[in-house]
Design goal:
about 200 residues, alpha/beta, Rossmann fold, 7-stranded mixed sheet, globular, binds S-adenosylmethionine
Length: about 200
């Protein structure tokens, strides 16, 4: 099952309230691990799709500007108050239809959004359009494993909409045919999460 942009907005309207209590402390190490070694020019423009309440903003290596995009006004209002490493331009919008020119962005970050968005692949496809050749992409998410566990993930995914996420998404089909190469793929938290680093070809 997948849901619409409207469903996402509705879910994250109420999730905005407990979000930081649920996802701040336990996730700090995962966020830092995903962003480790992300080397940015001092004038880099960094795209953060699905910024949520802004829990990543202070861990982004210093850059010229962070373009923070989210569908949910309730989440984005909190992001506007969050501590950040660099100047932030926050905008409400769909990561699959960004108002930025081709090849205008130096790096992109997708933390816990490719499994939440109605169409994770559409987000990567749009990133491929706006990223400069050679740009790095940092991904952190709970993609479904191969093998028998996937069956359980599919079952759990019927109920995980309450928390605004899909538990049965696979990463490889999402990436297939897009102009990225995988540079690193690290399993975290006992294999439940993956930190994946891509490079725009
Ligand atoms: C699980 S939260 C993750 C927030 C943040 N990245 C973090 O790591 O804490 C998912 C966020 O992605 C946003 N989102 C989902 N689909 C989106 C889309 N197509 N475009 C922009 N934001 C989206 C939701 O509104 C929500 O704020």
């Amino acid at each position: 099952m997948s849901w619409t942009l409207r469903d996402i907005r509705r879910t994250y309207r109420w999730m905005a309230w407990p979000y930081d209590r649920l996802f701040r402390r336990g996730y700090q190490g995962l966020r830092q691990e995903s962003l480790k070694g992300l080397s940015l020019r001092p004038d880099a423009t960094v795209l953060l799709v699905g910024v949520g309440t802004g829990l990543d903003l202070r861990f982004v290596p210093p850059a010229g500007l962070i373009l923070a995009v989210d569908l949910s006004p309730a989440m984005l209002r909190r992001a506007a108050q969050a501590p950040a490493s660099s100047a932030v331009d926050a905008l409400i919008g769909d990561g699959a239809r960004l108002p930025f020119p081709d090849a205008s962005v130096s790096a992109a970050i997708f933390h816990l959004v490719l499994c939440s968005a109605p169409d994770g692949r559409a987000l990567l496809q749009e990133a491929a359009r706006v990223l400069e050749p050679g740009a790095p992409v940092a991904i952190l998410d709970h993609f479904a494993p191969r093998g028998p566990m996937r069956k359980w993930r599919r079952l759990a995914s019927r109920y995980s909409w309450v928390l605004g996420t899909h538990l049965d998404r696979r990463f490889e089909p999402m990436l297939q045919g897009l102009p990225f190469e995988v540079q690193n793929d690290k399993s975290l938290a006992g294999g439940y999460y993956r930190a994946i680093r891509l490079r725009r070809r």
